[in-house]
Amino acid sequence: MDYFNYRDGVLYAEDVPLSRIANEHGTPCYVYSKATFERHFRAYTEALGSHPHLICYAVKANSNLAVLGLLAKLGAGFDIVSIGELERVLKAGGDPAKVVFSGVAKQPHEMVRALDVGIKCFNVESRPELERLNRVAGEQGKVAPVSLRVNPDVDAGTHPYISTGLKDNKFGISIDEALAAYELAASLPNLQVKGLDCHIGSQLTETAPFLDALERLLVLMERLRERGIEIDHLDLGGGLGVTYRDEKPPQPFDYASQLLARLSRWEGGEALTLLFEPGRSIAANAGVMLTRVEFLKPGETKNFAIVDAAMNDLIRPALYQAWQAIVPVDTREARETALYDVVGPVCETGDFLGKERELSIAEGDLLAVRSAGAYGFVMASNYNSRPRAAELMVDGDSCHVVRARETVASLWAGEALLPEGER
Ligand SMILES: Cc1ncc(COP(=O)(O)O)c(C=O)c1O
Ligand SMILES: N[C@@H](CCCC[NH3+])C(=O)O
């Protein structure tokens, strides 16, 4: 459920018509709904109820400071994958003691900073990374809290580029080697084993793979127990899918109930703190991208709607053939209906936002690409020297610029011509 709805033929974000935002701030731009972020975050906390838990929002999905700030205020923790994300969380007022640090190659300087601010846990993804963290923590005179990210080899049934829990994927320590890796972690003087972590993929539309993974992790936890290695928290990662088109993913409530039911049958399960790292399920349907139709270009085999947003603004369709709804913002005037490929101005054949979409539009019309709050702006680039779009946050009947549109001049900040005579 989100707060983007039509009223009298015009699409609104909460109480603000999107046409007004486009007229005031230009296009392309990203528009987020504060109430939707809050609602999606609360769906997790309410689903877990009194079971000990921490929801660590996956910063990579949407790292806008305003988004992080509002989630921090709701008590969120954060899942980060770089020092850049850590600094954003701190800048937004996030609590470092609620931060978990994922990623396959954390650099020593990133470990130092994370130890310095006192994060909750490092999700370690390999044996060499354990050794590196032990060395860095020792040099800092600190003990690093660790979980091992275990790759349980379950098929999440998702797009191959966003599946992470199979043997073929680069992520995590294989479940067969996990026991030995935990023994290594427990033996290293500057590490303290805190948890067990897994993340099997993104945009999952069934609970079965999560439950399969849990089953395998529980077996591993039994083995660890036998060896005297106790786990304080179990981090099940993110991955819950959203509705882009007609998917019917489980809601956090269904997902959590099934996990809690299984855990209640496991000794100690009721006291085990659960961590989740949701990104997409909190952010995707809390945002849209607005774009204006530049030209309609009828062709012999295809009609093109050329819009002012491109693959550099929203790369998901080009990269994963992802389908996101594209809808007119103002439907009050009658238009002819036709099938269009909605494409951008970038010089690539793969520059499209949607293919074969039935749309009733004219030049100058405003379109909203829905479900764009996650992996939208964060994956934008300056390809073709295009400044990145503005980001706006609607809160009731007000709208705030939460990141200004880039200027052309800002694109060459940090670049230099070769000195005179060497050009
Ligand atoms: C380690 C980790 N945690 C959390 C997430 C967030 O996933 P999602 O946006 O699917 O919830 C990802 C991305 O897939 C990830 O790699
Ligand atoms: N960027 C991907 C999701 C990646 C998940 C991160 N591990 C998407 O847009 O669907």
From TrEMBL:
Q: What class of enzyme is it?
A: lyase
Q: Name one GO molecular function term.
A: diaminopimelate decarboxylase activity
Q: Which residues carry this modification: N6-(pyridoxal phosphate)lysine?
A: K60
> Which superkingdom does the taxonomy of this entry point to?
Bacteria
Domain Orn/DAP/Arg decarboxylase 2 C-terminal, residue spans: 29-373
Q: What pathway does the annotation place this protein in? A: Amino-acid biosynthesis; L-lysine biosynthesis via DAP pathway; L-lysine from DL-2,6-diaminopimelate: step 1/1
Q: Which residues form a coiled coil?
A: none
Q: Which UniProt keywords apply?
A: Amino-acid biosynthesis, Decarboxylase, Lyase, Lysine biosynthesis, Pyridoxal phosphate
The cofactor(s) it depends on are:
pyridoxal 5'-phosphate
Its family?
A: Belongs to the Orn/Lys/Arg decarboxylase class-II family. LysA subfamily.
Name recorded for this polypeptide: Diaminopimelate decarboxylase
Species: Halomonas casei
Gene name of the encoded protein:
lysA
